[in-house]
Amino acid sequence: MPWAAPFSYANFVIRRIIIAVCLVAVLGVPLVLPLTTLFANKSLAPWSERERIAGLAATTIELCLCTIAMALPVGVALAAALYRTNLPGRRLLRVVLSIGLFIPLPLFALAWQSVGGGWRPWTMGLLPAAFVHAMAALPWVVWLTGLGLSRVEPDLEEDARTVAADGVVLWRVSMKRAAPAIGLAAVWVALQAAGEITVTDLGMVRTFAEEVYTEFVTDSPEALGRAVAVGLPATVLTIVGVAFLVRRWSRPLTLTTSARPTLVVDLGHARWPLFAVVVIVVAIYAAVPLGSLIRQAGSGADWSAHRFSVECRRAATLHVPMLLDSILAAATAGAIAAGLALVASWMALDSRIIRGLLFALAIALWATPGPVLGFGLKSAIDRAMDCEDLLLAWTTARPFRALFYEQSTPLPVMWAHVTRLFPYAVAIVWPAVHAVPRDLREAARLDGATAWGEFRRVIWPATRPSFLVAALAVMALALSELAASKIVQVPGRQTFAQELFAQMHYAATATTAALALIQMVLVLGAWAIVSAVARPIRVGPSE
């Protein structure tokens, strides 16, 4: 086997062919198949609908910009305070915010919709949708910015401290060196807002992703082709823009943590006033929507403990198995996506072709709206079943059809999670793999190490923390992924996020609020378990 043989040029080529085939089959085919609808159904006409396309583009851009404007300044300020100052209780506050990484987007939408009194005119529209996206994105901005601040070279900061105060060094040196991480956070927030349909569907906001999904549910191939055509120009522009930013940030961006001490700004007399401000912000972020859900689950203004307990027991009895199944599927998808990203990044170190393929797929998947990927996955499953019919015509056995279409299995949804969220895993894993010294890899090969030996002795020890971070990030995002998975789910295997999304269309009733609270409790339990496993990944100054 090429993975177990000593290093040679032939094995080098074979390994890269294997990983290239895996990337194309798992990620590339679902990405390309939607384009076939443009020509198969002659659906290029919508490109002449300038006013409609301009309206969709304007709404999508406005949603992204408003979300960034709400989430980025607050997130960066919180990251600076929680990771680079002597703020009291900063570790506990980081933990509270990090819990938000594991709260699915439908739950954020329902919680803040409950704050607004349910499905009301003031909870719909562009600004409310952007606000919900910003609330969901805030912990990601804090986390990514904190990782970037924790990777600033200590020597550079020490040199700057000889001529400037600590606060000036933090603002003019540390923030500047962490700019790629902040930029990644902005791109992360924008693409999540542009590609998801959960909040925009409830808020009656028409974006490119919403357009594609709406056309898809009409069950008209011609209509879907028109929708893909409408979204294609914006997708192409997004791919070009993200590719430019990734190329510019690829060298300075490093998301693994440093063991060396970092600059900690002494807040002096402002320590406790700033602590009060941060606590108020975190409390509003966490306590207001949680309290609103508790109030709603107890029947709102006529709240009673009995009604609250009845609704929670009913939700637990009916939906806990579905929620546990969703958490397990999301965790598995996270491990698969992080593992594929790790192996592909390792193979890309010595191959420009694999590196180009990896980044082309990651950028294209990142920029493509979720419903388009969902349709691509559905088409890929249909064509795989057609191929299976031809290859197994001599027998009635159809294993692929059973696993991805007929039986109630989580595999189609997991495939959607991996395809949709693979770019996030690459964004976290690639810098760690790229930082592994080339001399160590070459020394292992000279010592006669096999490919597996090189991975086990050199790559894995250096990249294990980033692998865990990537797996956790994908798991957290998969818990709320709907845009692609909703299209490929099989009957009888609905995820909890899809069930909650369906219930939300009946407004923030006591039942849906209880469902959200049950999900929050179980997700927090999963978060506690993975936090214990990932404890070595902790970044930022200690207490």
Describe the structure.
By secondary structure, the chain is mainly α. 75% of the residues lie in helices and 0% in strands. It contains 22 helices and no strands.
Distance between the termini: 50 Å
SSE string: HHHHHHHHHHHHHHHHHHHHHH
Shape: globular
Q: Would you identify the regions where 5 or more consecutive residues have pLDDT less than 50?
A: 254-259, 536-543
Share in helix: over 70%
Structure class: mainly alpha
Strand content: under 5%
| C-alpha-based Rg, rounded | 24 Å
Average pLDDT for all residues: 78
Alpha plus pi helix count: 22
Q: Main beta sheet: strand number and arrangement?
A: none
Can you give me a brief rundown of this structure?
This protein has about 550 residues and is mainly alpha-helical. It is about 75% helix and about 0% strand.
Write the layout of secondary structure elements.
Layout: H1 9-40, H2 50-84, H3 90-99, H4 105-115, H5 126-149, H6 154-161, H7 166-177, H8 179-195, H9 198-203, H10 208-216, H11 221-249, H12 271-297, H13 305-348, H14 352-367, H15 370-391, H16 399-406, H17 411-434, H18 438-446, H19 451-478, H20 485-488, H21 496-504, H22 510-533
